[in-house]
């Protein structure tokens, strides 16, 4: 699998080479400061256009996932929280029992896609250049190249950034925020949009807790102040702690996505005649 990438100009590139998107350049919310030389009203209008276009493309991705019974997750975090390590360990532990393919997002390099491919799983790398997040259009093209199997799991590893990816729906079932315990328990309060957008917080690098002053209970309380319904899993991607609970969560989501597809197929054919739906 190759690399793909598209900036906000939505230029098309099917050569699977590195493509460098333009910088974010917008501020993801009318309440924020706007670029010099652009009026506040114009900035709000541009922002709305970008997000509306993204939402339409995210819905197209979501329909594709639903049609194929795919459980899709959007992994978001600051750089280095352990997203790729977690994905590699997840794929190894699943051992092929549940197919996983990966869309990797980084500003530069194919390092993470190479790490995923070393497990035998399919991966497509998107390089965003100066872009600080993936958008639904980029992911749509990556999915064309990835060709994920029906009833599989698609993991989208977003660009390491605890701010911008929160505003962009990619069509995923859930955003999963990975916070490593070395980052400090105040991060959910400082970067609330990301924790509000996520359904699951994975607290990674728990093997390091004995060496840190990190207050785990306070971190969970902070996350729930921002998002009372956020689920929390403590893990160590490198040592294996907590990975069974993560794998159970993953399998349950994949099963649900598969059942929905089968239910939809059954409803469409009325369950009658020569239907071969499972
Ligand atoms: N001690 C410890 N180190 C970990 C753990 N998980 C990841 N790491 C280390 O953290 C560093 C970053 O891990 P990556 O998996 O590359 O993190 P990432 O979130 O994918 O990074 P970016 O894609 O650059 O944002 C590596 O040195 C990993 O070995 C963990 O559970 N415990
Ligand atoms: Mg990574």
Helix content: 25-40%
The total beta strand count reads 8
Question: Rounded to an integer, what's the Rg over CA atoms?
Answer: 19 Å
Biggest β-sheet: strands ordered side by side in the sheet:
1-4-3-5-2-6-7-8
Q: pLDDT below 50 for ≥5 consecutive residues: which ranges? A: 5-23, 25-31, 268-278
Shape summary: globular
Order of helices and strands: EHEHEHEHEEHHEHEH
Number of helices: 8
Could you characterize the architecture of this molecule?
With 278 residues, this protein is α/β, with parallel strands linked by helices. An eight-stranded parallel β-sheet has the order 1-4-3-5-2-6-7-8. Residues 5-23, 25-31 and 268-278 have low confidence and may be disordered. It has helices at 40-68, 83-94, 111-117, 136-146, 187-190, 192-197, 216-226, 243-269; strands at 3-4, 71-76, 100-106, 122-127, 153-157, 174-180, 200-204, 231-234. It is built from eight helices and eight strands, in the order βαβαβαβαββααβαβα. It binds guanosine-5'-triphosphate (GTP) and magnesium ion. Residues 83-84, 112, 157 line the site of magnesium ion.
Brief overview, please?
Helices cover 38% and strands 15% of the residues. Residues 5-23, 25-31 and 268-278 have low confidence and may be disordered. The chain has helices at 40-68, 83-94, 111-117, 136-146, 187-190, 192-197, 216-226, 243-269; strands spanning 3-4, 71-76, 100-106, 122-127, 153-157, 174-180, 200-204, 231-234.
